[in-house]
């Protein structure tokens, strides 16, 4: 078996979760992803689409290794979007890394599959010691085998949903370095508390489906409160999360890779804004866009749509380019930086 596929969890591990029913993990509401019968229609649309599939100008971001080695203000909280759903957080003098997909392809293979538009702004081998890596689920665009291999020797704890530890152990991460959590369970570390919360998605790596849990995360650093949605479709659970753990200072919300064929499992920007409002989300920090070609919309459509919605709803957005550090509360960024990479938008 190819190592990057991972390894299925033991039954006694996943049976402890209330979300594991009838031989698979379940969403809180009825959910379907694209089925095989949808594929001919989807492929037809894919072949006919006229939108920009990738940036048309030189797509290079400020290389972040210079800043990452410097000691940031230990009294503040800083975030750095590394592309897709990967976000590096500096808090209390420690580094935390969310969904570290820093590899070239969102695939089990290095020679095929969706390829990054540009290299990761941070080489995982140059990262400093990581207090904790937090995973939302085991899909290739969130849990990347080459990245884990590069990181595993410098990570103190991996904090993951139920069942995901089986992949990490298979790749050589010591069992004692892994913390598994079910929905509504928390892990308290030195200066932080992370709580797993529901999401509407699915899991699987090539030959498996729904045998590990998916989740979102509530990330508390002292009095500061951040929500990390991971990967999810819209459901009424956002209100419950907001009631239990909100209001938030900032919410990291996925806005890309949506399509009617798999509407239940990915938020589009309008749904993400609605979820954000229910969360009492604070500042809107968009993720899960602009890194891979995973849907039929243009590469820039999610952020363009979000900016329009933010103006309408008077929402404060934090839209850094990958590799750019922003402070949790003081983050002036150019929300239209992405326009210069598009031939369709650069002159408009």
UniProtKB/TrEMBL annotation:
UniProt domain Metallo-beta-lactamase: residue ranges: 96-289
Superkingdom of origin: Bacteria
Pfam name, any one: Lactamase_B_2
InterPro entries to which the protein is assigned, alphabetical: Metallo-B-lactamas, NAPE-PLD, RibonucZ/Hydroxyglut_hydro
Gene3D superfamilies per UniProt: Ribonuclease Z/Hydroxyacylglutathione hydrolase-like
Name under which the protein is recorded: MBL fold metallo-hydrolase
Organism: Imperialibacter roseus
């Amino acid at each position: 078996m190819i190592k990057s596929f991972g390894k299925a969890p033991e039954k006694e591990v996943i049976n402890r979760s209330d979300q594991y029913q009838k031989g698979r993990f379940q969403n809180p509401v009825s959910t379907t992803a694209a089925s095989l019968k949808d594929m001919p229609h989807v492929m037809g649309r894919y072949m006919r689409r006229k939108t920009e599939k990738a940036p048309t100008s030189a797509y290079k971001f400020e290389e972040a290794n210079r800043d990452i080695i410097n000691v940031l203000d230990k009294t503040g909280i800083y975030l750095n979007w590394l592309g897709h759903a990967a976000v590096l957080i500096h808090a209390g003098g420690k580094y935390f890394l969310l969904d570290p997909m820093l590899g070239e392809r969102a695939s089990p293979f290095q020679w095929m599959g969706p390829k990054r538009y540009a290299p990761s702004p941070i080489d995982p081998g140059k990262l400093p010691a990581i207090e904790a890596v937090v995973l939302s689920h085991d899909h290739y665009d969130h849990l990347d085998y080459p990245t884990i291999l590069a990181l595993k020797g410098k990570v103190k704890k991996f904090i993951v949903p139920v069942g995901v530890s089986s992949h990490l152990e298979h790749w050589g991460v010591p069992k004692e370095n892994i913390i598994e959590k079910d929905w509504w369970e928390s892990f308290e570390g030195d200066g932080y508390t992370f709580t797993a919360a529901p999401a509407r998605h699915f899991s699987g790596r090539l030959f498996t489906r729904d045998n590990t849990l998916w989740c979102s995360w509530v990330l508390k650093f002292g009095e500061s409160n951040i929500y990390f949605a991971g990967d999810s479709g819209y459901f009424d659970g956002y209100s419950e999360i907001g009631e239990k753990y909100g209001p938030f200072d900032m919410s990291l919300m996925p806005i890309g890779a949506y399509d009617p064929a798999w509407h239940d499992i990915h938020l589009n920007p309008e749904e993400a804004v609605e979820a954000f409002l229910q969360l009492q989300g604070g500042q809107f920090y968009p993720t899960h866009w602009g890194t891979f070609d995973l849907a039929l919309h243009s590469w820039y459509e999610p952020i363009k749509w979000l900016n329009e919605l933010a103006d309408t709803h008077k929402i404060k957005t934090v839209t850094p380019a990958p590799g750019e550090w922003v402070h949790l509360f003081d983050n002036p960024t150019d929300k239209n930086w992405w326009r210069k990479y598009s031939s369709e938008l650069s002159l408009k």
